[in-house]
Input
Amino acid sequence: MTSRNPRQRRLSRATAALSGRKRGAQPKVVALGGGMGLSASLTALRRITGDLTAVVTVADDGGSSGRLREELGVLPPGDLRKALAALCGDDEWGQTWAQVIQHRFESKGDLHEHAVGNLLIVALWEQLGDHVQALDLVGKLLGAHGRVLPMSAVPLELQALVRGHDPERPDETVTVRGQATVALTPGEVQSVHVVPADPPAVPEAVAAVLDADWVVLGPGSWFSSVIPHLLVPELLDALVTTKARKVLSLNLAPQPGETEGFSPQRHLEVLGRHAPKLAMDVVLADEAAVPDRESLADAAQRLGAAVELAPVASPDGVPIHDPELLAAAYDRIFRMHGRIGPWR
Output
């Protein structure tokens, strides 16, 4: 019999713990973010609650989403599509539809690199004239284990103050425009803001945050997927005033370009500068990704949060979150750090 390494053993224990959870009332959880980071959280969270809402950034301007946004003036659908795919079940129906909406065409024409799900979402927006109703309908078709909402009713342009965006002028600070450009800048991002500066929040997203038991922010691209939620005034107000407890889920590694060289605690400091009134309850980090635990604890304390270290990375060494390990970590946090609703 071959021996398993410590991470494989922890994965086995996490899977067993989740499979043994009692059915009953469940926490209302709202997860905010975008891209693959939000998908990781949703894939984990749908394993531990059936009352799950994703609130998704709408600042993407690259790829298929950017083309549809420019041509039709619609919200960028890509991150919304990824969230819907992450909420699909693990059965044949769910996985088939997840693959279908994620499928990208390959051609020499205008359809090249367009994702099926992007076209489906935009078609329903045009048919129904209602962002939320259309996304709810797509979710129903997919059998999604949760709801997906855009954070704002209008497409946003992300802008960043970046030091050294031009490598030949390392000390110069300039404004960089567009999520795709900000995400790949070789310079140091100082701060981000959105245009328009006072975008309207989707009312259903605000209501979900106010009604939640837990709110999960992150992981994901820090400046282009996580912090933008704090730049929508109504949504930030809801995050500040909600009685829900809040978890900040950190990335496993700095993102090349956007957060190159960032320590875990620096991620917290940047978030605090963008939303100084926002307090958190728990900061979740992978235990192997925190070289200086004391500094992280100090930074978390300034946000009003405790640090929870847990093995949440894929056991194969790739810097991606393992769904079962991340689910076990969230489940433990929800149970150990108090609760607002009567789900237990």
User: Anything to note?
Assistant: Residues 6-19 form the longest helix (14 residues). The chain has 14 helices and ten strands. The beta strands are 28-33, 51-56, 147-150, 157-163, 173-177, 188-195, 214-217, 245-249, 282-286, 306-310.
